[in-house]
Amino acid sequence: MTSKERIYTAFKLKVPDRVPLLPNSRVWAMRYLGYTFEECVKDPGKFVEAQLSMLEDFNVDAVFDFGVFYPIERVLGQNILTHEDDFPAAIQPLINAPEDFAKLPKNVPLKGKRWVDYQISIVKRLKQRVGEDVPLLAFVSSPFLSACYLRGTDNLFLDLYKNPDFVKALVKYLIEPTLEYTELQAAAGADIIHMACPVASRNMISREHYEEFVHPVHKQIFTYWKKRLNRKIFFHVCGDWSDRFDLVVDEGPDVIHVDEIDLAVFKREFGNKVCINGNVRTATTLLLGSPEKVKREAIECINKGGLGGGFMLGANCVVPRDTPTENMRALTEAILEAGDYPITI
User: Fold this and answer.
1) Torsion of CA 31, 261, 331, 193, to 10 degrees
2) Each residue's pLDDT tens digit, 215-243
3) CA 333, chain centre distance (Å)
């Protein structure tokens, strides 16, 4: 099987020729080749080279675009802090009061804007290099996450109680540019839309707030991506989502990249509805553990999540930048040993 056939077979909840390997290694791959984040920003060819190295040296089954650059938020005027060797961060909320929302432009054209065109150019370069046999994941923020960037997370969470209509209006406003951005990604060659919403976990907001402010928005945009763009959806959950996975599954992602969850329990409850990606622990295992621990935990994940198909091995979040190379190789060794999954430890 090609990597794309392997992953799409897992998306269909079937068993491919081997376990697909899909760790989110954007930052780690740059460090693996000795590049800083800033070097790759200045020369995107280095970022492309780093992603290709993951295919060639670690048997991963997909490549990722550059990820979180806040393209939509930048177009709207959000102040972004850059770092020499890490992803940028949104600072100083653009919307300090609901009245500031009224000052935002009614239409938000994205094409032709610097950071949007920059991101789309990397998607094009990557797709030209990997061709049709390797899927490409392109990242976009959830409109709810973008709203937190623009308003400030603490402020927005207070608004959930004090001014819920404002929150709904702001999130709704962000749907259109989100869809436009993913249209540009798809046209450039993205096969899979990669979205995350770490501010919507059980650790952050209640299930009731998720159901009211996030769930209908995700359902709307996921349906658009699948029916209008014909793209697969990779949704990453940070933290504890155990009380709302039924809502996430109902939204219609093709795969859920899980974090704090027992794979066996999740597989039992939702494995017949959605593909699973995960969930070797990033800090205690990949960053700080031994290769033997990584391999043991990876095989345990395969055994818990792989029964009957519909499983891809990965970390439970972004692979830490300073993860030892030997530990990344242990992930590759685990999938090569697993073969037709699951296996026993």
Assistant:
1) -60
2) 999 999 999 999 999 999 999 999 999 99
3) 24
